[in-house]
Design brief:
alpha/beta, UDP-n-acetylglucosamine1-carboxyvinyl-transferase, Chain, four-stranded mixed beta sheet, 13 helices, globular, binds shikimate-3-phosphate
Length: 426
């Protein structure tokens, strides 16, 4: 599919966001190994989170889906049945990497597959620690899906992650639930802590400190009633859109503001964006608030060191902000961009150039000079949801229509994106 976005005037209105993708995955997975029925409200409508539900169904767990409400009939840590077919993670790195932790400790073999993009993404980062814990794993060329897991009894480990990855941390913690004893994970930079927060909600006791977290197995999870906050990474597209289009004013109600994610707000404000947090409450251990963004004079900025890990999913849309800001955007220490749904350094660069914007790339980032304009033209998502949505935002500041090829990619995290965007224009 294709979408054409024609630049209009200021953006106005309320933006309804899908449920947070990271939190939905975790609630869906943890509910599947809890005792009893968990009710999850505002579950992400994104295809990725439905891949997680599809996998737990294939593992014999009852799942009822009614719009954004999901009920999962968990049967405890050992309640899965051996899957009769492959487990299809679709486009979802979170599904394949995190679920592998739970599968490593089961007494059966499973095989996880994914789409063309997922089949090119590195799995050694979870194969290493899970092998140390005693599971047997094999993958295509030793590193890519399909991933086969021969589960079995697990030993606890103390694991220092070489890359800052919340998926890897979560995978090891989930395996730790099934191991006999204390499993510790240490991270080189702070990554999102939704797994830790969600585990506590399901009644698991964790110990944690700066840069480490410890879980004791075998654990017991109790079913819960939970609500998922709005997705801050989806909000990012509207926060940047509202900031770069003059005279805009958007309200984004009920957005998840976990401090390990909310670096985005700090960065936007540091660039000069007018983003306000209107009120905050706690919901299932996660802070949630309403946001207001207004058209702003933007300076631009630098993303490096621990900010690169914290902003990794938002860098594509921040590149759009960078191009129209006064001083531009420099990104360093973000080599992980190269192993996301696409190589996001290359897909951002190719699409910016297609719209007449200059960018210099490096192995671990890029530099986009400020004060540039987007020209009418056509771009390609390359099947990457965040690239499709980032360039829809660019189109709002273009000098004519922008055609986005393979626009349906947005539905991986935000199926309502195109109608939501059109609802705020003009
Ligand atoms: C995620 C962690 C990040 C992020 C991804 C979601 C998660 O990936 O990019 O979109 O929910 O834990 P990495 O763990 O590979 O950094």
């Amino acid at each position: 599919m294709q979408e054409v976005i024609t630049p209009g005037g200021a953006l106005r209105g309320n933006v309804r966001l899908p449920g947070d993708k990271s939190i939905s995955h975790r609630y869906g997975m943890l509910a599947s190994v809890a005792e009893g029925t968990t009710v999850i409200r505002n579950y992400s409508s994104g295809a990725d989170c439905h891949s997680t539900l599809g996998c737990v169904r294939t593992l014999g767990i009852g799942v009822e889906i009614d719009g954004r409400q999901v009920k999962v009939h968990g049967r405890g840590l050992r309640g899965y049945t051996a899957p009769a077919t492959d487990l299809d993670a679709g486009n979802s790195g979170s599904t394949i990497r995190m679920l592998s932790g739970l599968l490593a400790g089961q007494h059966f073999r499973s095989r996880l597959i994914g789409d063309a993009s997922l089949s090119q993404r590195p799995m050694q980062r979870i194969m290493g620690p899970l092998t140390q814990m005693g599971a047997r794993l094999s993958a295509r060329d030793g590193k890519f899906p399909p991933l086969e897991i021969e589960g079995g009894p697990l030993q606890p480990i103390d694991y220092a992650m070489p890359v800052a990855s919340a998926q890897v941390k979560s995978c090891v913690l989930l395996a730790g639930l099934l191991a006999e004893g204390e499993t510790t994970v240490r991270e080189p930079a702070t990554t999102r802590d939704h797994t830790e927060v969600a585990l506590r909600e399901f009644g698991v006791e964790l110990e944690s400190g700066r840069g480490w977290v410890k879980v004791k197995g075998p654990a017991h999870l109790e079913a819960r009633e939970l609500s998922v906050p709005g997705d801050l990474s989806s909000a990012a597209f509207f926060l940047v859109a509202g900031a770069i289009v003059p005279n805009s004013e958007l309200i984004l109600p009920g957005v998840g503001l976990n401090p390990t994610r909310a670096t985005l707000i700090d960065f936007l404000v540091s660039c000069g964006a007018s983003v306000e947090i209107l009120d905050v409450k706690m919901q299932n251990g996660e802070p949630v608030g309403d946001l207001r963004v207004r058209g702003s004079r933007l300076r631009g900025g630098v993303i490096e060191k621990q900010w690169a890990a914290a902003l990794i999913d938002e860098i594509p849309v921040l590149a759009i902000l960078g191009a129209v800001s006064e001083q531009g955007l420099t990104v360093r220490d973000a080599a992980e961009l190269r192993v996301k749904e696409t190589d996001r350094i290359e897909t951002v660069a190719a699409n910016l150039r297609a719209l007449g914007v200059k960018i210099e790339t490096a192995a671990d980032g890029f530099h986009i000079p400020g004060g540039q304009s987007f020209h009418a033209g056509s771009v390609h998502s390359h099947g990457d949801h965040r690239i499709a949505m980032a360039f829809a935002v660019a189109a709002l500041r273009a000098d004519g229509p922008v055609l986005i090829e393979e626009s349906e990619a947005a539905s991986v995290s935000f199926p309502e994106f195109w109608t939501t965007l059109r609802g705020t224009v003009g």
